[in-house]
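Researcher: Let's do a round of design. I'm pasting the structure tokens now; please hold your answer until I've finished.
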């Protein structure tokens, strides 16, 4: 895609550059635990991981050429409920705990008024 396209390669990357057939990452969770000593990485992706949420289904009428901003809040406590990052610190694609993370994410997004 052209560089000015919102779906073009971005920094940080939001697509599976090593396997273009896998497409875009729908969510990326990376961080540290244990005082920053240990890392966890979850890259939820592929169409099997896509979830829908009412918070992302908005209707707005805009004048041609106008722009608007929509602000969302994500409750990460809800996203990580029941997830033991020490037991599974790395997961890609449809393996666990990614399905659980994506299910939780769908309910953890709200529109900020």
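Researcher: That's everything. Go ahead.
Model: Designed sequence:
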């Amino acid at each position: 895609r052209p560089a000015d396209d919102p779906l073009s390669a971005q920094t940080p990357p939001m697509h599976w550059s090593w396997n273009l057939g896998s497409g875009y990452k729908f969510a990326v969770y990376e961080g540290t635990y244990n005082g920053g000593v240990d890392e966890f990485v979850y890259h939820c992706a592929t169409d099997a991981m896509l979830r829908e949420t009412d918070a992302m289904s908005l209707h707005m009428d805009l004048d041609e050429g106008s722009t608007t901003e929509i602000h969302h809040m994500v409750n990460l406590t809800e996203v990580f409920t029941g997830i033991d990052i020490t037991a599974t610190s790395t997961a890609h694609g449809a393996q666990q705990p990614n399905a659980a993370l994506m299910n939780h994410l769908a309910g953890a997004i709200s529109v900020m008024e």
